[in-house]
Amino acid sequence: MSTISQPISAGDASATRGESQASPKVSNPPVLSVRNIEVIYDHVILVLRGVSLDVPKGGIVALLGGNGAGKSTTLKSISTILGAERGQVTKGSIEFNGQRIDQLTPGDLVNMGMVQVMEGRHCFGHLTVEENLLTGAYTRILSKAELAMALERVYQYFPRLKVRRQSLSGYTSGGEQQMTAIGRAMMAKPNMLLLDEPSMGLAPQIVAEIFEIVRDLNQKEGVSILLAEQNTNVALKYADYGYILESGRIMMDGPAAELANNPDVKEFYLGLAGDGRKSFRDMKSYRRRKRWL
Ligand SMILES: Nc1ncnc2c1ncn2[C@@H]1O[C@H](COP(=O)(O)OP(=O)(O)O)[C@@H](O)[C@H]1O
Ligand SMILES: [Mg+2]
Questions:
Q1: Residue 270, in any domain of the structure
Q2: Average model confidence (pLDDT) for the chain?
Q3: 20 C-alpha to center of ligand 2: Å?
Q4: Cβ contacts of 50-53, under 8 Å, gap ≥ 24
């Protein structure tokens, strides 16, 4: 089905991206490679149109775009949970650690070290914070002592959760629920985290707190991170590299600092546009690059 007969190697792909100005991590070999995927919901609704992206080992990559751009669909394609929503990857390929994963189950991926934190947090409101965290370890067979150690590790990153560990999640704040969701993912000992809009609905100070912890996790444990965000500003502050998605297509990509300074990105995504905001696609300076084809 794939339109690409020969996926180009990461070296070739990165050569098109002004690597010299990128953070050193960007030049690491990719742990995750998405190549020209097309996604269709309900057999007819075409949502992703040839999306390609790389996450270098140990990197933080931001997938940016407005509501409905296709960010969640991209993450769900990677974690192979699209089927549950009657979606299907109809073209392209996805590789994790050099292995095609499109035919694997979400459980296989968790065993390989890839864990997704879904949009909207999804904590079990009637369970305590600690019980929620423990549900994240269900794929691992751990002794009581190992479970206690795994919990302690989460509490080191999220001291707030330790304080709230006996509270019912349903009664904790939005920020604490997001922390619980990320902490639960950590219980599976991931080497790759997919985070879907961790900033959604949270106050700026809490968003900063969460992103600092995510960066810590990345730096101290080498966890590679792909995060989908509408909050371009904060995402580019913490990411090494970013992709901008609009209507199911990657419109632009580059090192985070370059994107943050790009006049078009500033105008359309960093809240500096006046009234009459146009689509990114309509920009005079916009040139769609045919990449990896
Ligand atoms: N299960 C589904 N069935 C049909 N269309 C869907 C489904 N999920 C998402 N879509 C559509 O796909 C597009 C992309 O959605 P999504 O990936 O959730 O975007 P984002 O996460 O960037 O807001 C939207 O137009 C949305 O309406
Ligand atoms: Mg979404």
A1: yes
A2: 85
A3: 32
A4: 50/3, 50/91, 50/92, 50/249, 50/293, 51/92, 51/245, 51/248, 51/249, 51/250, 52/13, 52/92, 52/250, 52/291, 52/292, 53/226, 53/243, 53/250, 53/253
